[in-house]
């Protein structure tokens, strides 16, 4: 009789186990530098930029739509789509020194900007990251957020 115990299957609390080479840095597989301009943006800058943009959207929706919850999301989505698609940066991104770029260095464009915005507004895809600090919305849009 074969007995399977917890050690054989692991625990879901540990998450997936993988190893990263010692000389690896986020963005190395993408051809990005380890630090400085053009390197992958740290998660704290991304989060603060998102909070700044959300707060700005809240204030705009407060004045224009009496702070309705869906209006806040709509204002956020519109400003994110327009600014990221055309300039590659939102106001929050600019304040915290980061920008969204394709791998060739150009702004994402409307297709990638739309896809990123939809996935970002769904929240969960943006919380799933890989070793290169790219959320699912970045992977799907074929973009990366880098330091300016």
UniProtKB/TrEMBL annotation:
Localisation: Cell membrane
Source organism superkingdom: Bacteria
Segments forming domain RDD: 64-140
Entries under Pfam families matching the protein: RDD
Keywords recorded for this protein, A-Z: Cell membrane, Membrane, Transmembrane, Transmembrane helix
Bilayer-crossing regions: 47-66, 113-131
InterPro entries to which the protein is assigned, alphabetical: Pra-immunoreactive (IPR051791), RDD (IPR010432), UCP021697 (IPR016795)
UniProt membrane topology term: Multi-pass membrane protein
Endpoints of the signal sequence: none
PANTHER family the record matches: PROLINE-RICH ANTIGEN HOMOLOG, PROLINE-RICH ANTIGEN HOMOLOG-RELATED
Official protein name in the record: RDD family protein
Species name: Brevibacterium daeguense
